[in-house]
Design a protein that fits this description.
- This protein is mainly beta and 392 residues long.
- The chain has helices at residues 24-28, 297-313; strands at residues 31-39, 50-53, 58-61, 67-72, 82-86, 93-96, 109-112, 129-137, 146-149, 158-163, 170-182, 186-196, 202-205, 213-218, 223-227, 234-235, 239-249, 256-261, 267-270, 278-281, 284-285, 288-296, 316-323, 326-327, 332-335, 341-343, 349-353, 359-363, 370-373, 382-383.
- It has 3 domains: 24-112, Immunoglobulin-like (Sandwich); 125-295, Sandwich (Jelly Rolls), CATH 2.60.120; 314-383, Sandwich (Immunoglobulin-like), CATH 2.60.40.1120.
- Helix content is 6%, strand content 42%.
- Strands 8, 9, 11, 15, 16, 18, 21 and 22 form an 8-stranded antiparallel sheet that branches. Strands 10, 12, 13, 14, 17, 19 and 20 form a 7-stranded antiparallel sheet that branches.
- The longest helix has 17 residues, at 297-313.
- The protein is globular.
């Protein structure tokens, strides 16, 4: 990993650096508002609830056991200000700051009631069509553009980008992005999908499954890939994708850089849970998605034929991944330029589209990463070294 960028990527410097700034006199008067959030029906703790003072930059997220700490000075806020509790699948709870109870040796219980499940709108049509695979979003192809979290980011802080797509019914199948740096032992993120709200900012959360879309980034992870199929998310127009910080593990302050692009339809941030959104750039984070787009039958046929011809023209490289003479299955092989990826089969074999100038990276949990330039090879066999093998 190269040193932390200083000058070459200035456009995001300070834009996506989410940090909380406190003055010493405010710190001295801060109180710890804490509690444990449970399901009002089952009594079970609710993890990862967004807790914060609405649009004031003071917020956090409950932990795996539903417990939270929110430190602030209540004297700095009006009696009309409220602390908002919200979570997928539950009704929102608002408590005026004047009604908050600050205790020291216990965690008061707060109950959230499950929301009433509303059936999605059912559209009946006689139009014949099919779902075809379509990519959406943006992929970094080597340009020095990034967005990052840095310093004392509050839990619940989000980075988001506008994804432009053709109109029509579309299911979101998977979501991915590149991690250029992560100094923490691991970071737990939540993926959120929003419609376009007022002034082009993120609006309503489109995840109606009631399930959190969670993903853990470990220190040496270079890519994130999240399967969205279990959440049944459909869109009909442009949408916004965000990554939200839920937990940081280890003693190091969080600092994570995500790949970006110098074009796109705009990026947004909010510093903490329940904070207001703000647009920070016309550029975008390199968020990319695989989708299934519903189109007329004839158009679907044309798309499939065009995609088949495109792939037939692309050069292919193949080979085996080996460790001590043994073929290694389930190794992820990625083309860093195209972002196309595959995994080795049970015999350790892979096949991938790649040009001579492309670079492939081979990754698997428990092994050191390997990176190779394709050059003019038709076959590339790669040796991986286990992290647990004894040193010579």
């Amino acid at each position: 990993m190269s040193p932390w960028p200083q000058n070459s990527m200035k456009w995001f410097y300070g834009l996506f650096g989410l940090c909380s700034i406190f003055f010493s006199n405010i710190l001295a008067a801060q109180l710890d508002y804490k509690g444990k959030i449970i399901d009002g029906k089952s009594g079970h703790p609710i993890p990862y609830v967004n807790v914060g003072i609405v649009e004031k930059g003071i917020g956090t997220v409950s932990d795996e056991e539903g417990m939270f700490h929110l430190e602030f000075n209540p004297d700095l806020y009006a009696s009309s200000d409220v602390v908002l509790f919200s979570s997928l699948g539950y009704e929102k709870l608002e408590i005026p700051i004047s009604d908050l109870k600050f205790v020291y040796n216990e965690y008061p219980i707060l109950k959230l009631n499950p929301s009433i499940l509303e059936l999605n709108e059912v559209v009946v049509t006689d139009k014949k069509g099919e779902f075809v695979q379509k990519s959406a979003g943006y992929k970094n192809t080597g340009e020095p553009v990034y967005g990052y979290w840095k310093d004392n980011i509050a839990l619940g802080g989000e980075l988001a980008s506008h994804i432009r797509v053709a109109k029509g019914l579309r299911q979101l199948k998977s979501f991915g992005f590149e991690v250029w740096e992560n100094v923490s032992d691991s970071v737990l993120l939540r993926i959120n999908i929003y419609d376009i709200g007022s002034f082009g900012l993120p609006g309503n959360n489109l995840n109606e499954s009631g399930l959190n879309m969670l993903h853990t980034i470990k220190e040496n992870d270079m890519f994130a890939h999240i399967d969205l199929m279990p959440y049944s998310i459909f869109v009909r127009d442009d949408f916004i994708v965000s990554v939200e910080l839920l937990q940081v593990y280890g003693k190091k302050e969080p600092r994570m850089a995500l790949a970006g692009v110098s074009f796109g339809n705009g990026s947004f941030r909010r510093y903490a849970s329940q904070d207001k959104w703000e647009k920070v750039s016309d550029k975008s984070l390199a968020f990319f998605l695989e989708t299934a787009h519903f189109v007329p039958v004839k158009e679907a046929e044309r798309i499939r034929k065009r995609e088949k011809r495109r792939k037939e023209r692309l050069p292919i490289i193949s080979g085996f991944v080996i460790e001590n003479g043994r073929m290694v299955p389930n190794v992820t092989v990625r083309n860093l330029r195209t972002k196309e990826w595959t995994t080795t089969n049970e015999n350790g074999r892979y096949t991938l589209h790649a040009r001579p100038t492309d670079r492939l990276i081979f990754t698997k949990k428990g092994y050191f990463n390997a990176s190779w330039r394709v050059k003019r090879r038709l076959t590339l066999n790669v040796k991986l070294k286990s992290k647990y093998s004894s040193l010579p």
